[in-house]
Design brief:
By secondary structure, the protein is mainly α. It has one domain. The chain is built from five helices and no strands. α3 (32-45) runs antiparallel to α4 and α3 crosses α5 (65-87). It is globular and about 40 Å long.
Length: 97
């Protein structure tokens, strides 16, 4: 996770948001748009929670079709990267403290 944290910091994501990601459903640091994106991402990666029509409707309220495609791509890429790191037991490389 350290490369994603480092990239988030470089992109200007406040530390409070990065630290609150585990509690995104209850944390007040996220906007409605961010909460929808996080819900969408979580539903994409979890085998026990499908992306429902209601979830897609919420996503479409906040994101254009090209943005939705980009969200799905980023979630898929990060999922791949995590699985790749897991398969090879890659440890954090010290990109963030």
């Amino acid at each position: 996770m350290d490369i994603r944290h480092a990239v988030g910091v470089k992109a200007g994501v406040p530390d409070a948001k990065l630290e609150a990601l585990a509690d995104w459903t209850t944390s007040e640091v996220f906007t409605a748009r961010e909460r929808v994106a996080l819900e969408f991402a979580e539903r994409i990666v979890r085998d026990d929670d499908a992306v429902s029509d209601e979830c897609y409707a919420r996503v479409r309220e906040h994101f254009s079709e090209p943005e939705i495609v980009e969200l799905v791509f980023v979630v898929g890429y990060q999922t791949f990267a995590s699985q790749f790191a897991k398969a090879f037991s890659l440890e954090p490389q010290g990109f963030s403290v």
